[in-house]
Every structure is written in structure tokens, then in C-alpha cells.
Design a protein that fits this description.
heterodimer; A: 136 residues; alpha+beta; Sufe protein. Chain: A; three-stranded antiparallel β-sheet; 5 helices; 3 strands; B: 404 residues; alpha/beta; Aspartate Aminotransferase, domain 1; Aspartate Aminotransferase, domain 2; 2 domains; seven-stranded mixed β-sheet; four-stranded antiparallel β-sheet; 13 helices; 13% strand; metal-binding (chain A)
Chain lengths: 136, 404
């Protein structure tokens, strides 16, 4: 199966690979997927509490090229968004942007899960209730 | 100048040897006759090519030329061997024994046999990919008509103890069949010494053309017969009807001849290259060789690079054509059933790459492959959350993963 140019670009030059300090109160961490499924994504956001805006986002992903590209793209999109805007990101937007084929849609689902999971973690750290996370 | 990408997926298929093509050419042009046309020189010339091929094959595997049934490839041969025995020996019994690491051509045929009312035992393998002779012995029943165990595994290269397996099958009055697709032409296979009654193999894994294979069916001690699965003109002693693929058959014959003459030299060269590749790649931390290192084909290695996903890795080694035990593209997300049968955890199975070398692989290509794989694994590990956790001493088995 051939990968789209955008997947290849994100895979070859991944944006925002790295680790944020998860002990900080304004950092939310999402770890989704499972090694035995062949995909694990860890996505982190750093939030400016005054404006509720995501100032930084980092990822590390164990997975195929589409999984790496989906998480790389997600971090790109997250920066500068408010937490509420970030919550509205839908996996199908990632599918469209990266031109993922049907067999790779689960990679985009995982990226959306990672975003929501990171936001939920941030909320809990700041005394808000956890998000109801859909399990795919 | 090194030409990229480099082909290291020779267990999937091999390139055609130019000498094989040369042997085939006349049969694709001037000598076009139907080998079954007994009444004119066009037919005789084609038949001569087919007969010569039988002799070339017979010399490689130490059988009688008459014992070769030509087919379209190993999948058809596996089907014909298993279904043909099941039908032919239905009076005697309905039990077949095979192993969990067989090719789908065998496993799915056995599933079909079960639907027809047959009983099939799937023997497990140990971590090296070898079946247990004791378990085989224990599985044998008076109804067992066939034991079918592959010679060398396509994913790991593991070679089963064929002679011992044949002895056990025969001591219980069952026939012994082997899918020798990866072995014939690569290592010495001798149907007499090995005690093989039926054997499936194909041309395109040994530098021959695609679309042609053979089934060896023993004619004496014992005389074995398989029921035809294709009805028609009664070709191939009535076991496989259909006009013979003469150019393909001539190519298979030539490929067998070259394999016989060059096997010793090829084996020495390929195993040295394979060992070098393997030694260099396993200098990477947390890399593991899958399958038996002691009993295996000379040109194959299968290595798991822990904490890196195989499909992502294949994308990173885009200058190499290899294959992975990861199957992220399949709906099930299930990794290789062969590696899982060896007891590999799913994550290690997902992290595997298979390298298959060929007669045409060069030292320069291996050098490049070593550097390329090391670089890709290192880069992907820097991007892997699992690698980071491993480095921090986190026990990954203790984490509650959100299965998806």
C-alpha cells in the first residue's frame, strides 16, 4: 500500500517529538493504544491556565507510519487552540488531511483518543471531572 | 554504484535467473506445441522439454522422473496432496496431522478437510519453531492417514526434523507429506533418504518462473496415489489434468539443475552474509532472533527489534524490500501467527523484520542494509514511548493498556 505524501512528510520529519514534564500541573498526558495491538501513542499538552490555550504539544508513538503521522499532525493542530477547540477535533479531519485509507482509520481514532485523554488528564489535575472517554 | 531499493524479500519470491529465462525462451516462441499432442513433431518437441525437466528435477530431489506431477505452484500442490490423500485413503481413515506454523496453503486446506468431515490435529511448536516428536507420536491414531509438516518455514527458516517425523508417520502406517517450498533448491532434499511420500514445491522460490510448481508422489515403497482435484484430459498420470505449462516446466527444470550444481557454493556464501547481517543487527539493544538458529535455512533471518513497530520500521527502511510479522493493515491487527506460535508476545511479533537473501545478493547490499536498519531502528526508538518507558525502567507488562 502506498502512503500519501503528507504521511511520508510527517513520518520523515515528525513535528513535536518529545516529552513534557508530566509532574507539572498544567501538563496533560494521554497514553492510548496497546503494544500488542501494534500502536501506542503518548500525547502531551501544556496549557496556559489564564487563557485556557494549549501552548505546547509533544508526542511519542510506537506504530506504523500512519499512526506516527496522525499523532504528529495532532500536535501541530493542538498548538494555539483552546482546550475546548481541541476537544472538537474529529478523527475524520485527520483522515482527510492525511488521506488515510480505510485500513488506517484506526490510527486517526487513536490520535483523537490521545487528544481527549490528554485533556482529561489535564482536567483531573486541575480539579475538574474527567472526560467520558469513548473506548474504541 | 548501488541500485536502490535492495530486494531482501526472497522468501516471497526470487528473481528469475537469466540462465533459466534462456532455457525457457525457445518454448515461448518456436517450440509452442502441446506436450500432449502425440501425433506430430510440435507435440514431441514440447514433450521432450517436459521430460528433460522431469529428469532435472528428479536429480535434485533423488526421485524417479515419473514421480513428478506438474502443477501451477506450491499452493496447488499442497491442495492436491492433502485433499487428494484425504479422498484416496478415505477407506483407511480420516485423520490428518499438521502443525500450527504451516503455510496457509496447508492450514486452510486442512480447515476445508475438517468441513468435509475429516479430523485434523494441529501440533504446536516450541520457541524455536520445532514440533515435538513425542507429541507427534502421541497424536498418531489408527485413523491417521497423513502427516504433513513443512520442511523449512517461510517466516523463520526453521527446519523440522523431517526424517524422524517420516519414521513416526510410517511406523503407524500413515503417509508423510512435506511442503518443501522454501527448502527445495536451497538445502539438500532427498526424498528417499528423508522418507518423503509426497512433497510440494515451486519454481519461483528458486530463481524459476512464477505459475509452475510440482508435487512429488512416490510410486513405490509404498505406491502412493492422490485423487485428482481437477478433472479433464487425464494429464500427469491422471492426477492433474490441464495442458502443461511447457515454458514454465522447462524453467523449473533448469532452476533445479542450477540449484543442484550451485547449492554448496550458494549456501556457503549466503549463510556467511546472513550471519554477518544478523550479527551486526543484533548489536542493537533489545533485538532478538526468531526461530531456531541451529536448524534453519541458510538464507533467512527474522529479527524483532523491541519497542519499534514492524510496519513503521519497514517504512523507515524504504530502500530495502523486506517483510514484517506486523499486520497493521489487516482489519484484525493480528501479528504473524507463525511468530505467535513460537510463543512471541504480540508486541515482539509486531516488531519483527524478515530478511531473505538470494543468489544475487551482494556484500555491498548487506553493508547498506545493516546501516539503513540500524539508523531506522534508532530513529524510531527515539520516537517510541515504549522505548522511553523501558529506558526509565518502567515495567510495560504492569501498565493497564487501553485495548482498542
Amino acid at each position: 500500500m502506498a502512503y500519501s505524501d503528507k504521511v511520508i512528510d510527517h513520518y520523515s520529519n515528525p513535528r513535536n517529538v518529545g516529552t513534557l514534564d508530566k509532574s507539572k500541573k498544567n501538563v496533560g498526558t494521554g497514553l492510548v493504544g496497546a503494544p500488542e495491538c501494534g500502536d501506542v501513542m503518548r500525547l502531551q499538552i501544556e496549557v496556559d491556565e489564564a487563557t485556557n490555550t494549549i501552548t505546547d504539544a509533544k508526542f511519542k508513538t510506537f506504530g506504523c507510519g500512519s499512526a506516527i503521522a496522525s499523532s504528529s499532525l495532532a500536535t501541530e493542530w493542538l498548538k494555539g487552540k483552546t482546550v475546548d477547540e481541541a476537544l472538537a477535533i474529529d478523527n475524520m479531519e485527520i483522515v482527510e488531511e492525511l488521506a488515510l485509507p480505510p485500513v488506517k482509520i484506526h490510527c486517526s481514532v487513536l490520535a483523537e483518543d490521545a487528544i481527549k485523554s490528554a485533556i482529561s488528564d489535564y482536567r483531573v489535575k486541575n480539579g475538574l471531572p474527567a472526560l467520558e472517554l469513548a473506548h474504541h | 554504484m548501488l541500485k536502490l531499493p535492495i530486494y531482501l524479500d526472497n522468501n516471497a519470491t526470487t528473481p528469475l535467473d537469466p540462465r533459466v529465462l534462456e532455457a525457457m525462451m525457445p518454448y515461448l516462441t518456436d517450440v509452442f506445441g502441446n506436450a500432449a499432442s502425440r501425433n506430430h513433431p510440435f507435440g514431441w518437441a514440447a514433450e521432450e522439454g517436459v521430460d528433460y525437466s522431469r529428469e532435472q528435477i528428479a536429480k535434485l530431489i533423488n526421485c524417479d522422473p515419473k514421480e513428478i506431477i506438474f502443477t501451477s505452484g506450491a499452493t496447488e500442490s499442497d491442495n492436491l496432496g492433502i485433499k487428494g490423500v484425504f479422498e484416496m485413503y478415505s477407506q483407511k481413515g480420516n485423520h490428518i496431522i499438521t502443525a500450527t506454523t504451516e503455510h496457509k496453503a496447508v492450514l486452510d486446506t486442512c480447515k476445508h478437510i475438517e468441513k468435509l468431515g475429516g479430523r485434523v490435529t494441529y501440533l504446536p511448536v516450541n520457541e524455536q519453531g520445532l514440533i515435538s516428536l513425542e507429541e507427534l507420536e502421541a497424536a498418531m491414531t489408527p485413523q491417521t492417514i497423513l502427516v504433513t509438516i513443512m520442511y523449512g518455514n517461510n517466516e523463520t527458516g526453521t527446519i523440522q526434523p523431517i526424517r524422524e517425523i517420516a519414521k513416526i508417520a510410517h511406523s503407524h502406517g500413515a503417509l508423510f507429506m512435506t511442503d518443501a517450498t522454501q527448502a527445495v533448491g536451497k538445502i539438500p532434499v532427498d526424498v528417499i533418504a528423508d522418507g518423503i511420500d509426497i512433497m510440494a514445491f515451486t519454481a519461483h522460490k528458486m530463481y524459476g518462473p512464477k505459475g509452475v510448481g510440482a508435487l512429488y508422489v512416490r510410486r513405490k515403497n509404498p505406491r502412493v496415489k492422490v485423487t485428482a482435484q481437477m478433472d479433464g484430459g487425464g494429464h500427469e498420470r491422471g492426477m492433474r489434468s490441464g495442458t502443461l505449462n511447457v515454458p514454465g516446466i522447462v524453467g523449473l527444470g533448469k532452476a533445479c539443475e542450477l540449484a543442484r550444481l550451485e547449492m554448496a557454493a550458494d549456501t556457503a556464501r549466503l549463510s556467511a552474509m546472513r550471519d554477518r547481517l544478523e550479527k551486526e543487527l543484533t548489536t542493537l539493544e533489545e533485538s532478538y532472533i526468531n526461530g531456531s538458529v541451529e536448524h534453519r535455512l541458510p538464507h533467512v533471518t527474522n529479527i524483532s527489534f523491541k519497542y519499534v513497530e514492524g510496519e513503521g520500521l519497514m517504512m523507515g527502511v524504504k530502500d530495502l524490500a523486506v517483510s514484517s510479522g506486523s499486520a497493521c493493515t489487516s482489519a484484525s491487527l493480528e501479528p504473524s501467527y507463525v511468530l505467535k506460535a513460537l510463543g512471541l508476545s504480540d508486541d515482539l511479533a509486531h516488531s519483527s523484520l524478515r530478511f531473505g537473501l538470494s543468489r544475487f545478493t551482494t556484500d555491498e547490499q548487506i553493508d547498506y542494509a545493516i546501516g539503513h536498519v540500524k539508523e531506522a531502528v534508532t530513529k524510531l526508538r527515539e520516537m517510541s514511548p515504549l522505548w522511553e518507558m523501558f529506558k526509565e525502567g518502567v515495567d510495560l507488562s504492569k501498565i493497564e493498556w487501553a485495548e482498542h
